[in-house]
Amino acid sequence: MAEQLAVVAFVAFVTSTIFLRTKLHPVDEINGNLYLSCLFFGVVHMMFNGFSELSLLIFRLPVFYKQRDNLFHPAWIWSIVSWSIRVPYSAIEAVVWSSVLYYTVGFALPAGRFFRFTFTQFVLHQMAVSLFRMLASLARDLVVANTFGSASLVFLLGGFVIPKGMTKVFIRACF
Fold it and tell me: Count of CB atoms within 10 A of residue 163's CB?
């Protein structure tokens, strides 16, 4: 776990040097895109960290089914324990990512915003972990689960943002 947190801290440090700000530009839309690109990179990072749960759960499924078939534990107990073990890691990862990245990039200075950012990263990581666990339990095969997981990453992270005033232009261009 310490090695994974060191990797998270290193990636956050590299990200903070890429998006390093010496002055805050909160009112300019062009500089707002710089902040949004940093936020998007954080989303991508948390989603790919959750992707590792897919293969881990595929390898644990035989144990789950053996416990269920032999009536050792109900399925919900195994799921709750598995989830509760992962929550502290998600919290620590969100705190490490936010601590290294937030103020070096130049996000808002109030502490409340920092804690909201950290909580958002935590919830995002929990969502990614839950998504890939669900895909692994539905697919039950490593190749199929990886295919569905990769497709879900493309659908969740793909696409583009259309500016508010340009929607009619894009609709006309499509037809």
Answer: 9
pTM for the model stands at 0.80
How open is the CA angle 150-154-156, to the nearest 5 degrees? 110
Q: By the 8 A CB rule, do 135 and 58 touch?
A: no
Each residue of 72-98: pLDDT tens digit?
878 788 888 888 988 999 999 999 999
Grouping H, G, I as helix, E, B as strand and the rest as coil, residue 67 is: helix
Determine how many CB atoms are found less than 10 A away from the CB of residue 116. Answer: 13
pLDDT at res. 159: 62
Residue type, 44: V
Q: Which residues contact 126 (CB under 8 A, 6 or more apart)?
A: 86, 87, 90
CB atoms within 10 A of CB 102: 22
DSSP summary character for residue 110? S
User: Which SS3 state, helix, strand or coil, does residue 108 take?
Assistant: coil
∠ CA(23), CA(29), CA(32), 5° rounding? 55
